[in-house]
């Protein structure tokens, strides 16, 4: 009886130690990054509605030694994510050695006062705050520029995004504060341009008329990602981690 109890205690301790040794990645951002549960999918389109966030697809690129806690929220800017209390929940859970993936931009350019920030002032202030608070907890911040929108000119060339000033500020902050940067804006633009005007539709939320009862006329969305698109962006993010030679990259498959 005692031997059995002792063995059980040892197994429990070993499992607990193994869990402690796992790497945790927290992520904060917007709808192109967030998880979409079945309730959301059913509410907006129906069963098998194809929208996905790229961070939702990241687990497939890591071994089971990595825990991903994706806290990105649809519609949030760097400002509203903190003002609404989402950030406090995330930072409360950060432990020394945890990673923090940060990506905001497109919603920051919205004109409403709840979300709008100025690239060089308020946007910078919120990003710097996320970085400093993460570092204060012993965490490792990683900055990401926002993924491109799919918009081509008549010659088939991908047009600049309206949030370019925000992406530029992320690059400046990364350089000044020595924060690892994965320029998903550049990487995703190269990807979408390579696919071209027609084939790139499969990366985004293009739904044929009649496929979903709630969308009888279909949908053409050049901002949000399909499952295929989110997986491709996640692949680019994994590629970026390897290029930076961050310690977490050794857990990539």
Compose a concise summary of this entry:
With 253 residues, the protein is of the alpha/beta class. It has helices at 2-20, 38-44, 78-83, 86-92, 119-136, 164-177, 184-199, 227-244, and strands at 23-29, 51-52, 66-70, 99-103, 140-144, 181-182, 204-207, 219-226. It has a 5-stranded parallel beta sheet, with helices on both faces. The protein has a 3-stranded antiparallel beta sheet with strand order 2-8-7.
Could you describe the 3D structure shown?
By secondary structure, the protein is α/β, with parallel strands linked by helices. The protein has a single domain, classed as SGNH hydrolase (Rossmann fold, 3-Layer(aba) Sandwich). It has 8 helices and 8 strands, in the order αβαββααβαβαβαββα. The protein has helices at residues 2-20, 38-44, 78-83, 86-92, 119-136, 164-177, 184-199, 227-244; strands at 23-29, 51-52, 66-70, 99-103, 140-144, 181-182, 204-207, 219-226. The strands form 2 sheets. Strands 3-1-4-5-6 form a 5-stranded parallel beta sheet, with helices on both faces. Helix 5 links the parallel strand 4 and strand 5. It is globular. 36% of the residues are buried.
How many β-strands, per DSSP?
A: 8
Class by helix and strand content?
A: alpha/beta
CATH class: Alpha Beta
Stretches where pLDDT is under 50 for at least 5 consecutive residues are 9-18
Which bin fits the share of residues in helices? 40-55%
- How many domain units? 1
User: What integer value in Å does the Rg equal?
Assistant: 20 Å
**What fraction strand?**
15-25%
Number of helices: 8
- CATH superfamily, by name, is SGNH hydrolase
N-end to C-end Cα span: 42 Å
The mean pLDDT is 93
């Amino acid at each position: 009886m005692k031997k059995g109890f002792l063995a059980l205690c040892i197994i429990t301790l070993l499992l607990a130690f193994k869990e402690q040794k796992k790497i945790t990645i927290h992520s904060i951002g917007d709808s192109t990054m967030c998880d979409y549960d079945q309730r959301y999918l059913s509410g907006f389109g129906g069963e098998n509605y194809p929208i996905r966030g790229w961070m939702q697809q990241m687990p497939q690129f890591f071994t089971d030694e990595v825990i991903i806690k994706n806290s990105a929220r649809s519609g949030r800017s760097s400002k509203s994510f903190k003002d609404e209390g989402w950030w406090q929940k995330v930072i409360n859970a950060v432990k020394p050695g945890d990673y923090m993936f940060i990506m905001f931009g497109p919603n920051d350019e919205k004109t409403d006062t709840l979300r709008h920030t100025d690239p060089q002032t308020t946007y910078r202030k919120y990003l710097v705050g996320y970085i400093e608070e993460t570092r204060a907890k012993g965490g490792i911040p990683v900055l990401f520029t926002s993924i491109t929108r799919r918009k081509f000119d008549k010659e088939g060339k991908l047009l600049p995004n309206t949030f370019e000033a925000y992406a530029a500020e992320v690059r400046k902050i990364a350089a000044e504060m020595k924060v690892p940067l994965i320029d998903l804006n550049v990487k995703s633009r190269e990807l979408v341009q390579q696919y071209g005007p027609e084939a790139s539709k499969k990366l985004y939320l293009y739904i044929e008329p009649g496929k979903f009862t709630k969308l009888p006329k279909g949908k053409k969305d050049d901002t949000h990602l399909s499952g295929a698109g989110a997986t491709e962006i996640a692949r680019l993010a994994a590629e970026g981690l390897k290029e930076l030679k961050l310690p977490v990259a050794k857990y990539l498959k």
